[in-house]
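EI: anyone free to look at a 425-residue chain?
SC: sure, send it
EI:
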Amino acid sequence: MLSKMFGKNKIDIIPIKKLEKDKNCWGGDGIVFYLKNGKGMLRQKYGSNDTEGLSCLVYDNIPLSKFHGDEYFCPTCEKLISAGYGLDKTNDQTISKLRETLNQPFVSLEQALKNLEPLLGLLPSGYYALADLELFPTDGDGKFFWAIENKPTLNKASCQIYDDGNWSEDRPKYILPTQPPRLFNNDTAEFYRKNENYRAIAYYLDGYLCALLDGHHKAVAAALEKRPVKTLVILPATGVFLPSHSNKSIEGGLVISGETIYENELLSSLKKVRDSFPDNRMSKSEMENYLSLKDESFGTYNWSEDILRTSDYFPSAFTEACIEWAGDLSDSRLNKIITYEEACDDRTLYYIAKALFELKNPRFKQLAFFIGKNQSYVSIWNEVYSLIAEIKDEEVENFFVEFLVNDEKLRPDITKIVDDYFKVQ
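SC: here you go
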C-alpha cells in the first residue's frame, strides 16, 4: 500500500519526440518530454507592482535571474536585466549533489535525459524539451556573460530583434549567470580549457537568453578559447493553440520555444494541457523580496581584462538576426547577386554583407566592393563602408584609394570613413 502511495508522487520523465538538428529551430538535437510529478521548485515567475513588472527564474524561492519590464512584458520590447541572488543561497541541494553527474563527459542526449532526472524533476509538471546546443558566453549585448550587475540594464538580446520591418526569431544563443562571480576559480576554468567534451546546463528564458544552471567555469573556458560553450538547454512550453473549427487543415498544438508538438503527439488533449499550465504569478511581497536580494560581488568583481575582452570574439544578437535574415550564403547565390542574376533589396544585401563579415567568410570583400561601387545601393554605403574599414589589407587600401581619386565630396559621411581609415594606418 505504501509503495503505491509513494509511487503516485514519483518523478517520471516520458520521452515524446526526438527532433534532429536540421529539423528544428533550436540549432541542435532535441528531445521533447513530459515531466510527471514535478516538484515545481525551479520555475519562472511573473509579477508587477505600481511601477514595474518583474520576471524571475526562481529556485527554492531564490531568484536566479531578473528581467524588468512593463506590466505586460511586451514580447518585442527590450527588457532591463539584472543579476539574480545566486544558486549558492538555496537550501535545496539537488543541483549541488548532481555535480559529479554534471561533470561527466557527454555521451548522448538520451543518456543526459536520464542523468538529469533529479534536476528536471525540480520543474513544474508539464512538457519541455532538452536540446544539445552551442551558446555564446556573452550576454548577447557586448558583455562577458558573468559581468552582469545588480543595476538593471537594457539588453537587446532579451527579445526579438527589429530592423526595417524585419523581426528575428527568438532562440537560445546567450547566457546569464546564476552563480555570483566571487565563486570563480581560475584553476577550474583552466581544466575545462583543455577538456571540452562536457556540457553546461541552462534554462531558456526569453529572447536569446538562457540562465546557466551549471557550467560557469566551462563557459569561461569556452570564452577564453574563443568557442561557444556546449550546453544542454531546458526549453519550457510557451503556449497552446487550439485547432480551427472553420479550417480543418489547421491543427492545434503545444509550442515549445518555436517548435510545435501536435495534439496527436501529446499524452492528453490540448484542453487538458492548457488547463494544466502552472500558475507562475508572484505576489507583490514576493516581488519586493526578490528585488531586494542582491549579492554584492555582481558588478564589483575584478575580472581580468583578457576575460572581459572575450566578448569581442562573439556575435551580438543583432548580428545573429542579420545572419538569420541573410538566408542562403552559398557561393552560387553570391555569384548570382554579383552578376545581377538575383535582385536583392538594399537591407537584405546589407544583412548578407554583415553576415559574411561576422562569419569571416572570404567572399565578404568581393560583395562589399560590389556594393560600394554601385550607386543603386547608396542607402547602405555607410554601413558597408564601415565594415570594410574594419579590415586592414592591401585590397581594402586600393579600394579606398580608388574611392578618394573619384570622390566628388557628395557623400561626406563616406569620405570621413575613408579618411579615418588612412589616419590610423
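EI: Residues 1-6 have pLDDT under 50 and may be disordered.
SC: 👍
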